[in-house]
């Protein structure tokens, strides 16, 4: 009987002195807000290699485009239960988690508001040329990152309102100077000249409209190659097929490239089982 009591006390003491190792720690959390209200969250975690899985609390119960990578850039499997993400780390020591959400922001009139509750320290990046007009709490710091407002927020519930800067003014085409009245001989060629001018204007306007609809800036070389690959394969392909076709582009860079083209309206990404199907619009 005495031996059992001594054994119990010994085990209890060891448990108190050497508690179970922490499964993971959060190194950084960056929340970037875009002008259309879409939010991208990126988390960098340090993980206990002996743990087969970790449970991570997300900022949104409606997260999508979820991507979890280990330190080697390998994609990790996960299960999502509302706002708790279970990542199967299986020996990984570092995990990069990224996801998108649309339910963290709302708009009333011209005022945007982002609302969330976090258990982490967060770096919040607001859209370019935005102006913060309300905090429900005082941030740890306020600064800028390029043209974006940068806020460092401690854990807690946050409600931050901001307005977007005015869109750059569109240039008004100048009226060409009036030409002297043509001689009677020129009058014979006016229908042809008018037809040529109308054709040139139609081509220019069509070109500008196409460029504005498809993209707002010149495509990068790797983006053009991905689009060419999709066109040659019926307009769509699995994300895994893109990675195989472009082995020189890292997996994380490929995912960001696809997301950039999706946000610019060039392609769409839809989930089919555990795979992402990338398709030209």
CATH topology of the largest domain: Immunoglobulin-like
Task: List the secondary-structure elements in sequence, H or E.
Answer: HEEEEEEEEEEEEEEHHHEHHEE
- Tell me what the CATH architecture of the largest domain is: Sandwich
Structural class assignment: alpha+beta
CATH class of the largest domain: Mainly Beta
Low-confidence stretches: 4-8, 14-20
Total separate domains: 2
* Rg measurement, Å: 28 Å
Topology (elements, then pairings):
Blueprint: H1 2-17, E1 24-33, E2 39-47, E3 54-57, E4 64-70, E5 78-81, E6 84-87, E7 94-101, E8 105-108, E9 111-118, E10 122-128, E11 131-135, E12 141-145, E13 148-153, E14 156-163, H2 184-187, H3 190-214, H4 221-232, E15 236-238, H5 239-245, H6 251-263, E16 267-272, E17 275-280
Parallel strand pairs: 1-10
Antiparallel strand pairs: 1-2, 2-7, 3-6, 4-7, 5-6, 8-9, 9-14, 10-13, 11-14, 12-13, 15-17, 16-17
Structure description:
The chain has helices spanning 2-17, 184-187, 190-214, 221-232, 239-245, 251-263; strands spanning 24-33, 39-47, 54-57, 64-70, 78-81, 84-87, 94-101, 105-108, 111-118, 122-128, 131-135, 141-145, 148-153, 156-163, 236-238, 267-272, 275-280. It is α+β, with helices and mostly antiparallel strands and 281 residues long. The protein has 2 domains: 24-163, Immunoglobulin-like (Sandwich), CATH 2.60.40; 221-280, Orthogonal Bundle (Arc Repressor Mutant, subunit A). The strands form 4 sheets. The protein has a 7-stranded mixed beta sheet, with no helix packed on it. It is flat and about 90 Å long. Mean pLDDT is 82; it is low at 4-8 and 14-20.
